[in-house]
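Why do we care about 3D structure at all? Because function follows from shape, and shape follows, mostly, from sequence. That is the central idea of this module. The next example makes it concrete: a single protein chain, its amino acid sequence, and then its structure expressed as tokens.
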Amino acid sequence: MARIYINQALTNKVFVFKDRWKAGVILAEMLHPKYEKVPDTLVLAIPAGGVPVGLVIAQKLQLPFEIILVRKIHFPDNPEAGFGAITFDGEILLNEELVSYAGLDEKTIARQITLEKKDLAEREKLFRKGKAFPSLKGKTVILVDDGLASGYTMMAAVKSVAKRGAQKIVVAVPTASQKALEKLAPWVDEIYCANLRSGIYFAVADAYQNWYDLSREEVLSLLEEAGYFD
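And the structure:
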């Protein structure tokens, strides 16, 4: 079971971060005492929103930065909502309760997974440009996203990282729902969350004063500016 670190002053509050960059600064401050310049440790961010957060953390802690491509498996009639997640290397995690509630059949699920695989392949070409995924064997991995609503995207990433032999898995997110953290806790060693919120309704966007979906072009630009492809 994960050890969980939160910022009590920000708990159950909304619009606490100016933007993703500022959220990254606050998370870096939480991680700093244990992880600054620690050998065999890397920051692994989930595009799109996790990239600016992860870049700040990696810079502040002076750690290597990498990305891990994960996609929600979206409902066919709702491009915003998902019923699971899939990683670039084929790890699939379904929200069985939601699948059952929505009455999704196997054919529909398979079709949506195929679509997400195609999208992941496109993103792999764009965001990695042939760059090999790093070896995680024996390393401490700090997995970063801009927030956790259901937690399934992060759990799929955790599954992939664990399969690749990471010695320690740390999740660092600016904001998360109480339910997501409870689901995630058995899977990882530590969780750092600046803005933990309970209650029935939760939206990642409510933690940010300046929130918008990052485009592929913006993510690519951020990676290029950071020297990711050098």
